## 1
Amino acid sequence: MRTLCLFVACLVLVPGVGSPALAQFQDAPSFDSFKVAVWRGRIAPLNLNSHPLARKFRTGSREQIKEAGVNFAGRYTLVSLGCGTGCAINGFVDARTGRAYFPNEFIGWTGIVGDYDPPEGEDSWTYRADSRLLRAVGRPNIGRPGEERYGPSGIYYYEWTRNRLRLVKFIPVGSYPKADPPVRR
């Protein structure tokens, strides 16, 4: 019995051995690999003309900017605004300029992934003030504006660079392994 327990422990602990999913988690990007200096200056007010959603969600955005300050990618505040059950609109506000960015993937992001049982202490959104890397568990919006259409469920690692998201790694998890089909009109 002891030999069997030791064998199982080796499968779990040794990199590259065991399930492919475990190997994917071990290859996850590191926040330290995307380090940046953090802005320490005065935070600019939200620029309501920078994006239509900045004006629409100005109260919630302003509150989060004031409360959180710079919390992402060296000079941005990640703002998260509800748009229904399991739905969020997420964006970034530049502390230097007040300019708001709302990437399409995050306009209508859903955290509903189905049967994924996250490890204890895992957050749906993980990010740091000193890193351009963002880790999000869920499904990105892949539809046209106003269309509820989502990509596959999983853990998405994005880099915020040149005011755009760049997918660094995707690890499939949950009950929705495929993207929703296009809506026929």
Note: Residues 58 and 161 are 24 Å apart (CA to CA).
## 2
Amino acid sequence: MAQEELDILAIQALLPHRYPFLLVDRILEIEDAKRIIGIKNVTANEQFFQGHFPGQPIMPGVLLLEVMAQVGGVLARKTAAGKGRPTVFLTGIEKAKFRRPVVPGDQLRVEVEVVRRKDPFWKMSGQILVESSLVCEAEMTAMVRDEAES
């Protein structure tokens, strides 16, 4: 069943990331252990635009993958809630494709679905859209560990 939206404070309660590396602004929908939809608003004030590239700002592809991984991390962390303090570790990226540049003013809609899950490992498939245009897609693997196990 889909849950209500998560705002930035709820996201910060789930992810360890903070400025300037917290790249998720809002979660629109969560279906526990199945799928999630998140939003990242890209502004001209992002630090990385200073050097990538001066006069022609383009969001780095690796940060698009990080946005996708953080949204997937919210899903895994929210699903694992109640089992101590789980931490989600990205373990792999496969089949990453970049379809068009992301620039200031774009709103990224990040859709992630669970492909397979065998605790503590997760495999997820994600895509990022701007309006209805696909800009990035990838498969990710992650491991969820309880803080006490580390």
Note: The beta strands are 2-3, 26-31, 35-41, 86-98, 107-118, 121-130, 133-146.
## 3
Amino acid sequence: MNAFALKPVSLALGVMAVLLASACAKKEVALTGEREGVRSILSDTGEDALASTNAPEAAPPLNLPATRANTDWTQSIATPRTRTAHPALGSAPRLIWSVDIGEGDGRRNRITADPIVSGGRVFTLDATARVTAVSTSGAVIWTQDLTPANDDRGDGSGGGMAFSGGKLYVASGFGLLTALDAATGQEIWQQNLRTTGTGSPTVFGDLVYLVSGDEVGWAIDANNGRIRWQIAGTPNNNNVIGAPAPAVSDKYVVFAFGSGEVQGAFRKGGLRRWDAQVAGSRTGFSTATVADITSDPVIDGRRIYVGSHSGRTVALDLENGERLWTAPDGPLNPVWPAGNSIFMITDRNELLRLSANDGSRLWGKALPLFTNAKPRRQNEIYAHHGPIVAGGRLIVVSNDGQMRTFNPQNGQLLSELPMPGGATTNPVVAGNTLYVVSTKGQLMAFR
């Protein structure tokens, strides 16, 4: 028999085998219940999970803490122990002096460090790593250039500062963390971070915490600059200059990274406790593709408030990182917690009051957005800094040359005060005086 005669027999056997196998297979059972998309179940960042954007007709009462006449402002407001919840300030502050502190904002360099106040001195960091100490009466006490010997001024941009125990800790765009004697400006020690250090450090006890390169968290001995431990985040290239300052409680330190990742660790040993992600983005805007966390994580009680450039703000549980709520707006500066609310300036230049309980909007006020009114030339927006609550008012400073104050209860605009050169840092308040640095590199004092 030739091979061609076997083909019909083989085909028939194959068909019979398939029929027998299908007969033995179990009958499929159709599952009952509502069909859900896999992505919607695995993610809680969908539109249905977001806090309400419908503000009530009348905002609930605001229970502000009593004003306190603080003398210092030593670091970011992220850490409760060093934050003044409601500093004292007059209702109608006026410019009393201004002084040059170095290079202002330019095409390649930016000032990102908020002023620091302690011991009758105001410390500033210009756009090219120059530190200046100024008396509270406006006299320059000392200056220190932190440009490395083998680099040129202007090669590094950005940085931040913190003060503790007579030392000023300065992070710079050159990738250095430097401890200076606050009285003289002399260097005490210096640590090479191996990558940019454009964010503000946080000091707690004998450790200095900071984020470098938007992806590495550091704990450094405040006495000698030696590395105690490090923690790594997920790398990301789409970052905004100025990494968030870590927030520290008695037990934990919270780092925020350029990838949108937030990590909680035990502050002494660095053992990671939890991970969280500020996920989601504002639809319809190209700026929402940048997932960088642009606000310092702010600890208030058992909660952490933190947000991203892509248009999301979240409240997390300090103990385990559990997400409590998500709001569909992103803060470009640290949020300000006050009573039962938080205040922030959003990625769309809106001043908001949100409920601290669920993130819902209580009121919103539009701030100037585009620098040019013509639609085809709307490629730049105004920068607004703050807000802070001081003297019973909500204060915002801007690079459009205005300081604006608002009623924190309902958002009503109370006053506008010209600011020469406009603001490039968040305002700070100490000794009944508001300090802010202008885009031209001027430290201004308002009282």
Note: Residues 69-446 form a domain with the Methylamine Dehydrogenase; Chain H fold (CATH 2.130.10.10).
